[in-house]
Amino acid sequence: MLREWKTEWMKVRRRRIALVPAAFLLFSFLWISWAIRSARMESGEENWKWLLMCLGLINTLLMPTMIAMIASRLCDVELKGNTLKLLCTMEQKGRLFDMKLLTGAVYVGGYVAAELVMMLVFARLHGFAGGVTLRHLMCFLLQSGFVSLGVLLVQMLLSLFSANQILPLAVGLAGSFLGLFSWFLSSPLWRPVVWAYYNLLGYIGQNWDESTRIVSYYEVPMDWSAVITLVVALPLGYILGRQLFIRRTPGCG
Amino acid sequence: MDYMVETKGLTKQYGGKEVVRDVDLKVPRAHVYGFMGPNGAGKSTTLKMLLGLIQISGGQVTIGGEPVNRKNRIAILKETGSLIESPSYYGHLTGRENLEIVQTLKKVPKQEITQVLKLVRMEEQQNKKVREYSLGMKQRLGLAEALLGRPELLILDEPTNGLDPAGIQEIRELIRELPGRMGMTVLVSSHLLGEMDQMADYVGIINHGHLIFQDKLEALHEHSRGSLRLCVMNQTAALEILKREGISCNREEGALELPRLADDATARLIGKLWEGGAGVYRAEEKQKSLEEIFLSLTGRRGSL
User: The CATH number of the domain where B204 resides is what?
Assistant: First the structure.
């Protein structure tokens, strides 16, 4: 298994895939830096809530596009050079799928970890009182990490089956906007939409007082039905996607 | 006989239509087996089934004496090199880096990369990105990938496609040498019959999904049943004598084409023609070309 894992990294040599999350991270940093200047918070705790909510919203908009780009760059190397028929004589197809997904997950995981570091940097730079709570941390990982894994799975499948990578990239872009709309248009119809889970698993809410023009932030109780849906859908989607890949690409393994 | 590849009743259906039907391939170990057939005859489909790249609708594949199944497929195929249809490559990587990926997956020593690069004469281009290669270079890279790990069996689908004449000759010579030099069994497909004449020890001919011939190359030539071509000064006299002797003939470009006769019967006939004033000035045995043999076996005319 380590050999197959190693070859995935050999394949992406000179693809500069890490530049994609790095660019998105820089964009997020600049966005938050700009937004924090106009944000007025009443307390240190409010600062953290603002930052976490702000990052959740930014991730909803940016992560689907970023993940689509990463998945596309990981998968099109196989399609351009017609390599699947060669690989399938040396490697089980299911394992190839696993390794591809795992490689994508490393980039996504790296991005989420870098965001955590970025949050701490902001907290230090702007003198946020206290630290991030364990609940916030877990919710952040669930929202940004696990939802992104679901998005990655969808994008990976689309990229593996699309000779032209425009389609998966367009879906990624559309996913960004769908996710964003879900923040403002509440409806049960968002439940089957994977990109909407960035919002459904949101854990910070905001109230805007029109008279004082002050925004206050509050804890949103966990939407357990959304969590359960994600926990069930993620492994199920993985199993189905893996089977689909095994059946639809050359080779019987 | 020891067969490296053996199939029994190998069949492939697409939407109820059989594109390969009951093919019983027998590829002897450490020989070059030429798999011939016109375009669309089922060559690539058969080779893909051997490699497990498409599912078999019926029949059994045995490689190296072991029946291939889902569990042992990868283990068996790791001992097999293949180049199917077009070469597989990562364009953004160099030739060497491409080979390193295959070397890692096949678990073979790194120094073999240098050996195969030398074998396909690609040492100078090894550090160039593959997207900058010509089709011929990519084909060589595909061959180098197939040769990594010194596989016991090499399955090559039209390996000389896209190569220049010098490259074609080099690859043919390389394939020809592999059984002797490395003990490899080479199963190579082509629709170029002359190519098989230069490379193969054994041949199989497939047409419309049926294996219509399988034997040694010499046996295929034997199958040609050559004719006797006589050039005579006086055709009228010659025809009279032939009629008297009960030998049928065809007139062809000023010569007479007779069925192949035994040596003594040929000598006797030439004597009689000489005595009868036909004036034989040339007698030659005419072998059917491989193309003609193929066409007589398949009953198919036109482009191969």
Answer: 3.40.50.300
| B259: CATH | 3.30.70
Domain count along chain B: 2
Residue at a domain's end among B202, B222, B242 = B222
Give the other-Cβ count within 10 Å of B180's Cβ.
11
Counting beta carbons within 10 angstroms of the beta carbon of residue B238, is it exposed (0 to 12), middle (13 to 18) or buried (19 or more)?
A: buried
- Whether residue A250 and residue B92 make contact (CB cut-off 8 A), yes or no, is no
Phi, psi of B46 (to 5 degrees): -60, -45
Helix (H, G, I), strand (E, B) or coil at B4: strand
The model scores a pTM over 0.90: no
**Does residue B130 belong to any structural domain of this protein?**
yes
Nearest CA in chain A to B73: A253
How near does any CA of chain A get to the CA of B263, in Å? 54
Q: Is A24 helix (H, G, I), strand (E, B) or coil?
A: helix
| Alpha-carbon gap, residue B131 to A23, rounded angstroms | 27
Handedness of CA B293, B298, B299, B300 (dihedral sign): negative
Alpha carbons B193 and B204: distance in angstroms, whole number:
11
Query: From A15, which residue of chain B is nearest by alpha-carbon distance?
Result: B92
Which percentage of chain B shows pLDDT scores above 90? 28
Among candidate residues B222, B251, B270, the one where a domain is terminated: B222
Both B106 and B233 in a single domain? no
A86 touching B, CB under 8 A?
yes
- Quote the CA–CA distance of A84 and B105 in Å, as a whole number: 13
Residue environment code for A194-210, b if the CB has 16+ CB neighbours within 10 A, otherwise e: bbbbbbbbbbbeeeeee
Residue B28 domain boundaries: 3-222
> Of B86, B87, B63, nearest to B7 (Cα)?
B63
Question: Per-residue pLDDT tens for A73-123?
Answer: 999 999 888 898 888 888 888 999 999 999 999 999 999 999 999 998 888
Q: When comparing pLDDT for B94 and B181, which is higher?
A: B94
Q: Please tell me the predicted confidence (pLDDT) of residue A253.
A: 42
Q: Point out the least confidently predicted range of A205-209, A212-216, B118-122, B261-265.
A: A212-216
Same domain, B237 and B218: no
